[in-house]
Description:
Elements: H1 16-24, H2 29-43, E1 52-56, H3 62-69, E2 74-79, H4 82-95, E3 101-105, H5 113-116, E4 119-125, H6 134-142, E5 145-156, H7 162-174, H8 177-195, H9 201-206, H10 216-225, H11 234-243, E6 246-252, E7 269-276
Parallel strand pairs: 1-2, 1-4, 2-3, 4-5
Antiparallel strand pairs: 5-7, 6-7
Helix pairs in contact: 1-4, 1-10, 2-3
Amino acid sequence: MMIKQNLEDVETxxxxxxxxxxxxxxxxxxxxxxxxxxxxxxxxxxxxAGKSFLDIGCGSGxxxxxxxxxxxxxxxxxxxxxxxxxxxxxxxxxxxxDLSFKVAQGSALALTPATxxxxxxxxxxxxxxxxxxxxxxxxxxxxxxxxxxxxxFALYRRTWMCPLWRIEKRWYSRASPAAQDRARRLYAAWFxxxxxxxxxxxxxxxxxxxxxxxxxxxxxxDWLGGYPYESILPEEVExxxxxxxxxxxxxxxxxxxxxxxxxxxxxxxxxxxYEKDSRTT
Length: 281
């Protein structure tokens, strides 16, 4: 008989926090500036100054820090992984000074305005598709948005290879460190083989920090191990968000290079910004 997993239990998820802790140890001023630029480019106007900001799946905490640096008056950073919570607390403690923030452990599947209130900006980059219940997580996160507020998030785009990647991720998340290391080396070689026909792979990796201040090899570990795993098409997101009372402001499609179109190297994230339609509230 199949035992139903409690998806609000961190033990049912890949240990993202350990990876983010290693990444946080390497954060520099330059990476913070890239994170700030990436967040501002995604959100556009209105600015974050004076706004409240909820970071769902905060990871290392670098984007909560970016929100604070952009003038957010109140930042709440949540993650299901206790190591990510500790890492975010540490990073903000070092870099955020006396700015107002709160870091707590919590699952997107348990989010409720009754606990945290509403926020002017709700942000979740690459986290909701790892909850095991994407549709519920999307609905819960949307419910946290204040009237006329913004919801910015990124989700994996579905490809025909997603079922195979789900199997890989399930294996990787349970594999030994040695086996994970071999898998990363194999993927990196595959990435170079496929990618070199389409773009400058070395330049792509060297400039990866321009991708929201992140690091290619830390993101690689997250990609291979990101379980639970779901993906979704933009038209499905649009239909869902309309039903939840939102209207689209921005969509930034995933870059269709390096085998992403068919999922040979995995799936990139489409980035979305929706606004809560006051006509429905």
